[in-house]
Amino acid sequence: MAGRTFRKSAKVAKATTTMMKRESGAKEAKAGGRPSELIDARIKELGDWRGKMLSRLRALIKQADPEVVEEWKWRGVPVWSHDGLICTGETYKNVVKMTFAKGAALKDPSHLFNSSLDGNTRRAIDFHEGEKIDEEALKTLVRAAVTLNKSKAQS
Questions:
Q1: What is the pLDDT tens value at each position of the chain, 155 positions in all?
Q2: 0.90 exceeded by pTM
Q3: In this structure, what are the phi and psi dihedrals at residue 114, rounded to the nearest 5 degrees?
Q4: Topology (CATH) of 35-154
């Protein structure tokens, strides 16, 4: 009997998750649907230093790679891709976090990475209120991520 209860609960949980994803997708469609519009809405919704920081990071990513593709994943995370995921732009109460999917494989001579340093794959940069961005170093890092993605896509 306990096994049945577990299976039933698992089915209910799966159905609930599926329903939540559909509702989330419906909300995104109503909010404009296109990733660029959803990112615009997030920046506006934040309305503080985090929105300004996310907007600036987004502009720098686009400058570094004019062919970048903007995406909206995981229920509200801006994502930038080119032949694979480059980075995400997460916003928290005290930080805007830029996580590079393959950051551990990138050279970081300017030592921008300051978060998620223990993993074997990802690396992140935490930006705090009032912090200055090393724009050229960041664009170089984005370009390196694109180059890495391209090399993996060709193999």
A1: 455 444 444 444 444 333 344 334 434 444 457 999 999 999 999 999 999 999 999 999 999 999 999 999 988 999 999 999 999 999 999 999 999 999 999 999 999 999 999 989 999 999 999 999 999 999 999 999 999 999 988 77
A2: no
A3: -135, 10
A4: Aspartate Aminotransferase, domain 1 (3.90.1150)
